[in-house]
UniProtKB/TrEMBL annotation:
Source organism, top-level taxon: Bacteria
Entry annotated with the keyword Cell division: yes
Function: Essential cell division protein that stabilizes the FtsZ protofilaments by cross-linking them and that serves as a cytoplasmic membrane anchor for the Z ring. Also required for the recruitment to the septal ring of downstream cell division proteins.
SMART domains noted in UniProt: ZipA_C
Family, as annotated: Belongs to the ZipA family.
Record keywords, A-Z: Cell cycle, Cell division, Cell inner membrane, Cell membrane, Membrane, Transmembrane
Protein name, per record: Cell division protein ZipA
Listed Pfam families: ZipA_C
An individual GO BP term: cell division
Membrane topology: Single-pass type I membrane protein
Length: 370
């Protein structure tokens, strides 16, 4: 009896310790509010914190994932309905009114915020609808996004002061970004927070298989690291600093504008930055500059080859007009042949991204390379 009591006590203590440890992990992970990593992207930021030139001479190790086969679910058998020989014809039920198209679009937009290929998606099924104001932000080291199914059977993004209440919630934690892959500790803390929220609202929480998702996170991060390239074309002075007013005129004539941080940026019609011009030493631009750098964040730019062509032409024209030299990060001159070689490498890199189903400059790319 004493031995049996000791075993029961040991099991109880072990379970208590596990719960205590996970609660501490949750508190550490959620100790402060996290910014939206998609919107607040540090400048000149790639994996490893360094800028490097593309090196794609080795064959890619990553193959596009095979398309999973569709599972066909047989329809349930329909029982025959017997009616008397002289019974009146049954009146068919009126078909349901079609949903307005804008409602379908709104639902599709909300559901597009979550992607099973990029996210770990937890589901919360409520017995009694949960008011939007009761749903926390679930802060975490990576992007978290939540959508809810309203009492009117519409999906919407949770947040923004909605007055809706939800019968179902989907809460997604991103698997990877430029800070690396999701870790087991981070995932456990997230799951515990969702479970505690569900328990507090008498709801049922369900989760994907954690080990498989952690493996997918590592694979996704390895792929992203292989294509995470930030190209820098430098214009070095020949001993005479470049006057900023001259740089400004040349930049504006080429379609660039001055950003709030003092750099010059070239933007798409939708307002996305395609490339930027800054001081070569990353200091703020003053009255003069000893060297300029044109930065091109490869995976975050759609139509990258055309943008690189414009960037190359502008860099050569800027260097000629300022009397400087176009060089790489190691100070070696960049001739037309060198730029053509970089362009070929870019074409191969973009093909690799397309094969993976992550188009450069797409929402998926902006999320992963943030």
């Amino acid at each position: 009896m004493i031995v049996a009591g000791a075993i029961v006590g040991a099991v109880y203590l072990f379970n208590w310790w596990q719960e205590y440890r996970y609660r501490k992990n949750t508190q550490r992970a959620f100790a402060r509010n996290q910014p939206d990593v998609l919107m607040d992207t540090p400048k000149n930021m790639v994996r490893g914190g360094e800028r490097f030139e593309p090196a794609l001479d080795e064959p890619t190790r990553f193959e596009p994932p095979a398309t999973p086969g569709a599972t066909i679910v047989p329809p349930e058998p329909i029982e025959p309905q017997l009616t008397p020989q002289f019974a009146a014809e049954p009146v068919p039920a009126a078909p349901p009114a079609p949903r307005p198209r804008d409602e379908d679009d709104r639902d599709a937009l909300a559901e597009s915020l979550l992607d099973p290929a990029l996210d770990f998606i937890a589901e919360v099924h409520a017995r009694d609808n949960i008011p939007a104001g009761d749903v926390p932000r679930f802060p975490a080291p990576k992007r978290v996004q939540a959508i809810g199914l309203t009492e009117h059977d519409h999906w919407e993004q949770v947040g923004g002061g909605s007055n809706a209440s939800y019968s179902e919630l989907r809460v997604a934690l991103q698997l990877a970004d430029r800070q690396g892959a999701l870790t087991g500790e981070q995932l456990n803390a997230f799951c515990m927070a969702v479970q505690q929220f569900a328990d507090a609202h008498d709801a049922v929480a369900t989760f994907p298989q954690r080990a498989a998702k952690l493996a997918a996170a590592r694979d996704l991060d390895e792929f992203c690291a292989s294509v995470d390239v930030l190209i820098g074309l430098n214009i070095a002075s020949s001993g005479r600093p470049f006057p900023l007013e001259r740089v400004r005129l040349l930049a504006e004539n080429a379609g660039l504008s001055r950003a709030a941080d003092g750099t010059f940026v070239y933007k798409s019609e939708s307002g996305k930055t395609l490339f930027a011009v800054s001081n070569q030493d990353q200091a703020g631009l003053g009255p003069t500059s000893d060297g300029l750098t044109l930065l091109f964040d490869v995976p975050r730019v759609a139509g990258g080859l055309a943008v690189f062509d414009y960037l190359s032409d502008f860099a050569q024209q800027l260097a000629g007009s300022l009397g400087g030299s176009l060089v790489d990060d190691n100070g070696r001159p960049l001739a037309a042949a060198s730029l053509d070689n970089i362009r070929r490498q870019l074409a191969r890199l973009y093909a690799t991204m397309d094969d993976r189903g992550i188009a450069p400059g797409s929402v998926s790319a902006l999320r992963l390379f943030a």
